[in-house]
Amino acid sequence: MSRGPGSKIDESDKTSTDSDRQFVTALARGLEILQCFDAEERMLGTTEIAQKTGLAQPTVWRLCYTLQKTGFLSPVPGKDKLQLGTAAIALGAAALAGQDALEVVRPMLQAIADRYQVAVALGRREGDSIVYLLRCQGNSPLLMNLRVGSRIPLFHSAIGWAYLANCRPEECEQLLADAAASGKLTDEAELKTMKQALARYPARGFVYHERPKYQINTVAAGIKLPDGERFVVSCGGPTSLLPTPLMFEEVGPLLSQLTRELQPVLLLGKDL
């Protein structure tokens, strides 16, 4: 599997990284620790970090100490936990400063969110997750508390399925095979539903994902740029606001049209 930005170094990567003399493993492990923090988990202890990364506790202690000394992590006052430090925040701010195109995209997403009183998000893949770059919400108290920076599982969500649907067939098969081998995709019923959604994507222009247990329906579509980079957009909310017929007849096609409108905006935004 090709390693996307922000992905964890696992056993399947060891052969390539061990033979790559330019690859600095210690640096990669430090970055992996920083990527454990997100909008939902802003404070973590070293034991939690070790569990998330699979690194040995002494290694985590040394790396966290170094990250604290360089300002990328800082202790949480009164708690035995760490949080992102000023250096990490400054780096994130510098990255966002180059994302002017997102401000052009925002009102386009917000218009759909307001129209249906649901949530619309734009994301990009990092490892086995889709990370929200933008999230717009309509006036509904029933929506999940997700935000920019939230990580959505690649293999268990509409927005993740949309990403897979926009991969080359051989790339998609490799991602699915790696996920199955690592235990991230073991539910045969879910796998069958996902493959059906991927197969129907070319004709529909979107994937549909329903979660009856939570009464939530979602559609999502992908945006491919000429350099191979891919973005994904999703629209989801309570089934009371987004019943299945509405998703297929109106919201899905609307989202597919939105991706066609966003493609040139995001392409030009790479040069802003």
UniProtKB/TrEMBL annotation:
InterPro entries, sorted: GAF-like_dom_sf, HTH_MetabolicPath_Reg, Tscrpt_reg_IclR_C, Tscrpt_reg_IclR_N, WH-like_DNA-bd_sf, WH_DNA-bd_sf
Keywords: DNA-binding, Transcription, Transcription regulation
Pfam families linked: HTH_IclR, IclR_C
GO molecular function, one term: DNA-binding transcription factor activity
Keyword Plastid: no
Domain IclR-ED: from-to ranges: 87-268
Stretches assigned to the HTH iclR-type domain: 24-86
Record GO biological process: negative regulation of DNA-templated transcription
PANTHER family: HELIX-TURN-HELIX TRANSCRIPTIONAL REGULATOR, ICLR FAMILY, TRANSCRIPTIONAL REGULATORY PROTEIN
The name this protein goes by in its record: IclR family transcriptional regulator
Organism the protein comes from: Advenella kashmirensis W13003
